[in-house]
Amino acid sequence: MNLSFFIASRYFRSKKKRNFITILSRISMVGVAIGTMALVIVLSVFNGLEDLVRGLYASFDAELKIEAVQGKSFVVDSEFLSKINHVEGVEIVTEVIEDNALFKYKDYQHLARLKGVSGNYLDHGRFQEGYVSGKLDLGTDSQPRAIIGQGVGFYLSIDIENEFELLQVFYPKAPRNAGTLDPRQLYSRNVIKPSTFFSIDKEFDDNYIIAPIGFVRDLLNYGEKLSSIEIKVREGQRISSVKKRLKAALGEDFTVKDTDEQHAGLLRTIQIEKLFVFITLSFILAVASFNIFFSLSMMAIEKKKDTAVLVAMGAKTKLIKQIYLKQGAIIAFSGAVIGLVLGFIFCLIQDTFGIITLGISSSVIESYPVKMIWTDFLWTSIAVIAITFVASYRPAVIASKVKSTDL
Q: Where is it located (predicted)?
């Protein structure tokens, strides 16, 4: 066994006298354990929230989405769609027309996003996460039906069981005659039957109504134009690989976004929050590690005679430093291992039983989600090592200055 480690471990495990310094060392170890456990738990919760957001958004968004680089729409013909369909890995191609519209139900009005989709939209496996009330059905060309966000339904007081009341949709248009006094020339109007409510996320629930693309194309007068094209990737194919093939096939005039890129701002916000939480808790862990500094400093004073004996026996300055550095490492390592294990056990229990709830009524999730990633354990360990070295270095330097004449 390494001599410096042997002496440091003897100092840490000594049972001859339980003095204040020994108690302080144990307190330091507990402080490191609690700080490490808190880091692991909080980072795992952020991972769980990020995965939850991805899962919810993936239930509404396409795996890949094609949009024009310039403008909000682009002309599509059969040749263009055929080119996309022939890209390796593409399973379903859904045409989309999307724009803002005014909705009216009885005496209530609400401005929301009208999304027209082709008939294979639901084949993407939409709304697997979240809550759905009613039958997922877009109807037919002659009898179109709307899938409505629960928030929009609340604002308009929509009753999907009422077979006689229809949802009115208004879309502004440029008048053919600039001097017309007829308000009907200023907008297009049509009606559709509400059939289903969905609830995924407030952003979607409060802003989206989904309808057949034929209904929306006629209302918005889009002709052969589309707002976007949504792609479902064939099972067994990597989304990133299919994305690269689509980019190569479509050229620079179109963007191809995966689910993360469609909500890059939100996911980046979660990651930044996670980073700042990590920094904040690491700082708190550093403050807790001051106990290591004080305990080692006091130990250096208490063991001054022992150190002088070692120096008289020929111990070099390097050995003395290593003893106290390793003493601090033992304290921190013991606390870190305990904290990592407790954090792992707590996250495992939370993931299995959901003992800590969100405290709100939710159809999506009832308890805090957690997801453990090995890199979080790695960075937590690195933070503990760095903090321990800083806390232990000064006491080690002080101890190494003891001379044999101090006996």
A: Cell membrane
